[in-house]
Specification:
Elements lengths: L9 E9 L2 E11 L2 E2 L2 H8 L2 H7 L5 H65 L2 H4 L3 H11 L5 E6 L4 E4 L25 E3 L3 E2 L6 E10 L5 E9 H9 L8 E5 L5 E4 L3 H4 L6 H8 L4 E7 L5 E8 L6 E7 H52 L12 H49 L6 H24 L5 E2 H9 L9 E4 L2 E4 L1 H20 L9 E11 L2 E11 L12 H13 L3 E6 L4 E8 L5 E2 L2
Parallel strand pairs: 16-18
Antiparallel strand pairs: 1-2, 2-3, 4-5, 4-9, 6-8, 7-8, 8-9, 10-11, 10-14, 12-13, 13-14, 15-17, 17-22, 18-19, 19-21, 20-21
Subcellular location: Membrane
Catalytic activity: ATP + protein L-histidine = ADP + protein N-phospho-L-histidine
Main location: membrane
Length: 602
Amino acid sequence: MCDDRRHPVLMHAMAKAMDGAIYVLTVYRVQGGESQSVGQFLTILRSGRWKAACSHLSSVRSRLLLLTLVLLLPALAAGGLVVYAGYRHDRQSVEKHLQETARALSLVIDRQFGQAEALLWALSTSPQLLEKDYAAFDARARAAIRIPGAWITVADDQRQVVNTLLPQGSPLPLINNRDHRKGLTVGTVRVSNLFTGFVAKQPAVGIDTLVATDDGSELYVSMIMRADTVTRILADQGLPPTWIGAIVDRNGTVVARSRDAEQFVGKPATPENVERVRAEMRQGVSESVSLDGVPTLLALARSPGSGWSTIVAVPRSEITAPAWRSALYLALAGGLLLTLGVIMAWQVGRSIARPMKGLTSLAQHVGRGEPITAPSSGLVEIDRVGDALALASMQLREADRRQKLLIDELNHRVKNTLATVQSLSWQVMRPGVTPQVAQERFQQRLLALSRTHNLLNETLWEGASLRTILEAEFKPFAADSTRVRLDGPAVDLPARLAVVLGMAFHELATNAVKYGALSTAPGRVQVDWKIEERSEGTTLTIDWCELEGPMLETEPHPGFGSRLLRQAITRELAGQLDLRFEREGVCCTIAVPIEAVGQQAA
């Protein structure tokens, strides 16, 4: 940056906040007809932290695209959460339904076994059986059986004595071991695990009991059902075609299955299900893989009566398929919205970038000092920037004009100042004045001239306040501000008047300090001024009066100060000077014509 007090430099910087963003419009440095363009400044601006922060998002389009992503991605994430929540809700509903279905199936199987137990109890109390009239009992048992695929067998310690599956009178098989009777006592009923019958040679289950005959021996009575009978019971429940229902015995062997029964009946269930069954797990829901390799979600329920377990499984794909469909629809919708958002962001970005490029061209014209007119872009913010650039162009050209005037005025003032300094030097070097005194007087007058110049520099030589000039001249001499009273309206003097009056006030203040009112303790100075409208024009009238100073016996001889004062007022300013030597000090009335000046009542 250049010091505008020492160089003819114009710095113009404009920053405008629009919707939370700051746009640096123009920075100009004009000196001797040369300009530093806005592009060079922007190159500097983009360096350092700003460049590091914006290197990846350096355009309006990229930031609009980022905004599109910021707006869409949370919406898509929320949609994903909704889909997942729907999946969790559906899964919980399916788990509950599976558990209820498994418990219902176990009740159906228990009810079927209950019917068979009731029939078995009725037959076991038959008199024919107790008296070992096997032919009569055989006929009665055949007449009592109403369950399809079921038959009655009776065995003593060595062989079967009744088997309604075979025609009456057929030879019956021998019994080689009694393992099937272990744990069974007279008067109790037990549902067996799956086994292969001696005669039927097919997988079957039995409802067994021990009966004590009249002669004290025991007979083993069973109602046997083929496994496909239990499978038909399972099929009658109407499970969905894709679901898998299975009934396993206490060993974990598959007794019935709703799908592919002929392939899996008689085989162990999956290892984890066998483990659950043997651990006598009452109920539960878990993920598994079926015997035919299908990932499933299954529910298991254990029957309290038979100890068998019912398994109902549904393929996991049926649960996840709706969620995947929803996720696919969400992804398609999100992709479509994202594509549309990107296209719209690109179009909107282009509609913003085009007028912003126009602003760059306008800024270059402003940098060259050319007049510009900002066209309407349809965007309020950019139009405001364009108007600001147009205003900056006008202000810059006005500043150039003023700078030229200032330079011309400065050249003129330098010449006048040098002439004043030359006059001062000739005046102080009078015969009879010692070099030390001459040097002191010359230095004091140069300092007075410098103080006035400093005041003018602060306002770029546009003028200085009359009150400020007086205060600056009294400051080195009157430490006590109560000894100087200034009264008058606010008046801004042009540079020419300020310099001359500053020198005049210096001479009067110096005289008051050396010989007048300010040379004694009670002395004081009163300065009043006013603006008067006279026939010849506007006049500034200043009354300077010293009070309570040392008494003057005779009028002093006019010296250099008096001559300088009279020459400055009457010749340079074409004014009037009334210098009076009163008994208490010097009184002076100065009247100078002035042009229209800024004034304000005090």
